[in-house]
Amino acid sequence: MANLKETFLSPILKGNPITVLVLGICSSLAVTVELKGALVMALSVTAVTALSSLVCSLLRNTIPSRVRIIVQLVVVAMMVILVDQLLKAFEATYAIDKSLSVYIGLIITNCIVMGRIEAYALGNKPLPSLVDGFANGLGYGLILVIVAFVRELLGSGTLFGFQVIPQFCYDLGYVNNGLVILPPFALIFIGCIIWIHRSFDKDLQEK
Amino acid sequence: MNTNSNTYTVIYTALVVVVVAALLAFVSQSLKANQAANEKAETIGQILNAAQFNLSEVNGNAATIQFFKENISEIQLVNTNGEVCGALSTENAEVLSTSDLKKQNYAIAGKGGEVALPVYNFSNGVSVLAVYGQGLWGPVWGYIAFKQGTTDIVGAYFDHASETPGLGGKIKDDPSFRAQFVGKAVDYSAEKPFDIVKGGAKGEANAIDAITGATMTSKYLNISINNWLEAYKAFLSSEKSCCQHECCGDCCTECTECTEGCCENKTEEE
């Protein structure tokens, strides 16, 4: 059990896929303009990493090693298409799926997914693999939501589409920051998160 | 068992692919109805958007369809001669889906099929026409709203399947792009009835600015719009005769003089 807990907590804090492994940067710049989209993306990636890690782990002893990448790819692609189809089928998520456009389909190219299968799921039992995939998805999602929170608040003055910065601030001369909406700010902000994370965690600092 | 033998590898991969394909086909079939309903509501939302209805209070598929039913007066299908050749049920809020528009696009190009282009007439005096065509990476389509019986544009809305987000995707995402259409007019005497100009329009009544960084998407959208406007030509220009005077407002009756209550004063046009 202690091991499972470690497997679960490590990707969220110490081995966070974005801030430590620096994986999945591309999508985290693209989908973090709004909290809603970031949350759906985070949940989608979590579902895909968790389930494809589980399936690949169940199949790990049968997969021919020469074609293992292809088999992993087929499994991941299947999960991504399932997520996309499900998002399209529900009224509440249809518009979000449209606004995330290509990025849902591009989950398959997210290095976290294939990386965790190759590095962990193929060598471990199904339950730890499921936990590992799930936790990596959450670690990714955590950073996504933090970045999206700041970007939506400063860039649009809203959270989840609701106005949170009151009108009188605008009347007094406050304006939404246009730079925050653009991807470069997301990169700068993620850089700051990495900086803060490293300054608190001595193990991450190079000598 | 030797998992590295050639026979095993071939059979294994074939099996995996077949199982995955079967599963995806099953899921796709079972979710099809829901997805189609969402797509229909989205199309209706886009048509309403083009017609400049305020949809901020309208939430959800059912509400959008209800709003459409309340405001639509007639849905006609017209051919390239400008003749009405059919109608869609307003009661069931029937609209042509993007795949229907694709078929029409083939028909316009003379690649088979009957031309029956949609005209959505709303009770606020706006007619919405559709456009469809090839974009840069995939299809682009949209709706252009005209003041009924004129070639004056009152609004537009565009969508795309896979244009580059942030560049070509702006035809949908950038409200200032579609806002340019408002107040413009289609001019059939010009070389191009409507023009999206790279480098900026020079204030022409029938031209707007192209999108910076999306030259190809702008170009293809321009071609699509003009193809469809050409197909709508007979319909749009025949209707134009019925309401030339500003005083007629939103009504669509024949009149030549601007007098009070001019719409009752019907005479032969010009």
Description:
The complex is a heterodimer of chains A (207) and B (270). Chain A contains eleven helices and two strands, in the order ααααααααββααα. With 207 residues, chain A is mainly alpha-helical. Chain A has a two-stranded antiparallel sheet with strand order 1-2. The model of chain A has no long low-confidence stretch (mean pLDDT 89). In chain B, the strands form two sheets. Chain B has a six-stranded antiparallel beta sheet with strand order 2-1-3-4-5-6, with helices on both faces. In chain B, strands 7-8 form a two-stranded parallel sheet. In chain B, strand 5 (139-147) and strand 6 form a beta hairpin. Chain B has helices spanning 6-50, 61-71, 98-108, 170-173, 175-179, 215-231, 233-240; strands at 72-78, 84-88, 117-122, 126-134, 139-147, 153-160, 195-197, 207-209. Chain B is globular, with a radius of gyration of 23 Å. Chain B is built from seven helices and eight strands; from the N terminus they run H-H-E-E-H-E-E-E-E-H-H-E-E-H-H. With 270 residues, chain B is of the alpha+beta class. Chains A and B meet through helix 4 and helix 5 of A and helix 1 of B.
What form of chain B results from the Cα inertia axes?
Answer: globular
Distance between the termini of chain B: 90 Å
Secondary-structure-based class of chain A equals mainly alpha
Write down how many β-strands of chain A occur, each being a DSSP E stretch of 2 or more residues: 2
Number of strands of chain B: 8
What would you report as the Rg of chain A, rounded to the nearest angstrom? 18 Å
Strand order of the largest sheet of chain B: 2-1-3-4-5-6
Q: How much of the sequence of chain B is in beta strands? A: 15-25%
> What's the story with the biggest beta sheet of chain A?
2 strands, antiparallel
Secondary-structure-based class of chain B equals: alpha+beta
Sheet-strand content of chain A, in percent, reads under 5%
